[in-house]
Amino acid sequence: MRKPAVLVVGQLPPKIMQALEDAYVLHRYWTFEDKKKGLAAVADSIRGIATTGHYGASREMIFALRNLEIISSFGVGTDAIDIPAATERGVPVTNTPDVLTDDVANTAVMMLLAVSRDLVQADRYVRAGKWVSDGNMPLTRAVRGKTVGIIGLGRIGADIARKLDVFGVTVVWHGPRPKPGVSYRYYEDVVQMAADADYLVVACPGGESTHHIVNADVLKALGPEGSLINISRGSCVDEDAVVAAMAAGTIGWAGLDVFANEPQVPAALIDSERTLLLPHVGSATEETRAAMGNLVIENLALHFAGKPLATQVNAL
Ligand code: NAP
């Protein structure tokens, strides 16, 4: 039987590329010199797209591939995929939820603790010989007794909350609607929650509804002793406002795993002693990335076997 043709939008980890190569005829979108012409040349044969939360799939791409049957994405965030276009075309979109929740939540908790204890600065302090030359480092801040406001109490947000329980903090949260059975205090208004919080953790999806949900007003409410932790998407935070707030001391600290224009990070954030900057590594462990890759492969295999998909995002 002829292997179905699959368009891979951006490079995936080597083991996943190999598994895809074994099962499908692969076309590597990122290697097309002229994207439009390259796409047109393979358009009729392509039956599946393998992509990531970062590379996504545009409306133009979805409509150019006349025989497209499935989009299988590596990552839980689908804001870079034009879901309405896929739905219009009757194309199911799958993602990789749950398998990454634990590591992403751990990254958020790790950033929160690291920011509160100036962990990275402390490491630099030792390496720079300052312990010897300047003596003990300035004191840092305890998390115990503080309030953590979580924006988006979904799979990752709820796991962050659960894990934070052992640190003696008060968890509060904001989302589009209250959830029955959740005991943490709910805030309808993000600014109000930021005003009451010492740490603001962003764990909602990207996309239009959350664009700049953390803006200058929210940062002002968080205040000079407050810390911002972003594990969601760069688009959820007004990055210029963060730069301005850090410079003016409007907020105290920031731990950021995601940025507006990755992999570019504003120089002011790099230069600041009060930021912890990670290169979008929330889910980046061997174990989790392998599980995510397996789910991308499983969804494609299920589709081409005519079986129900494991993790379909859009209702068709
Ligand atoms: P999820 O289970 O769908 O949770 C998202 C939560 O955000 C839901 O509870 C949802 O509320 C809430 N939400 C939706 N719109 C909102 C709004 N306008 N304001 C506030 N909250 C809103 O997704 P997840 O698996 O937890 O993943 C969350 C996001 O994390 C992903 O979309 C992705 O962008 C990001 N992520 C980042 C990394 C990384 O490496 N840094 C890795 C994985 C995921 P309802 O429950 O009421 O719908």
From TrEMBL:
<dbReference type="InterPro" id="IPR006140">
    <property type="entry name" value="D-isomer_DH_NAD-bd"/>
</dbReference>
<dbReference type="GO" id="GO:0005829">
    <property type="term" value="C:cytosol"/>
</dbReference>
<comment type="similarity">
    <text>Belongs to the D-isomer specific 2-hydroxyacid dehydrogenase family.</text>
</comment>
<dbReference type="InterPro" id="IPR006139">
    <property type="entry name" value="D-isomer_2_OHA_DH_cat_dom"/>
</dbReference>
<dbReference type="InterPro" id="IPR050223">
    <property type="entry name" value="D-isomer_2-hydroxyacid_DH"/>
</dbReference>
<dbReference type="Pfam" id="PF00389">
    <property type="entry name" value="2-Hacid_dh"/>
</dbReference>
<keyword id="KW-0560">Oxidoreductase</keyword>
<dbReference type="GO" id="GO:0051287">
    <property type="term" value="F:NAD binding"/>
</dbReference>
<dbReference type="InterPro" id="IPR036291">
    <property type="entry name" value="NAD(P)-bd_dom_sf"/>
</dbReference>
<dbReference type="GO" id="GO:0030267">
    <property type="term" value="F:glyoxylate reductase (NADPH) activity"/>
</dbReference>
<keyword id="KW-0521">NADP</keyword>
<dbReference type="Pfam" id="PF02826">
    <property type="entry name" value="2-Hacid_dh_C"/>
</dbReference>
<keyword id="KW-0520">NAD</keyword>
<protein>
    <submittedName>
        <fullName>2-hydroxyacid dehydrogenase</fullName>
    </submittedName>
</protein>
<feature type="domain" description="D-isomer specific 2-hydroxyacid dehydrogenase NAD-binding">
    <location>
        <begin position="109"/>
        <end position="282"/>
    </location>
</feature>
<feature type="domain" description="D-isomer specific 2-hydroxyacid dehydrogenase catalytic">
    <location>
        <begin position="6"/>
        <end position="314"/>
    </location>
</feature>
<dbReference type="GO" id="GO:0016618">
    <property type="term" value="F:hydroxypyruvate reductase [NAD(P)H] activity"/>
</dbReference>
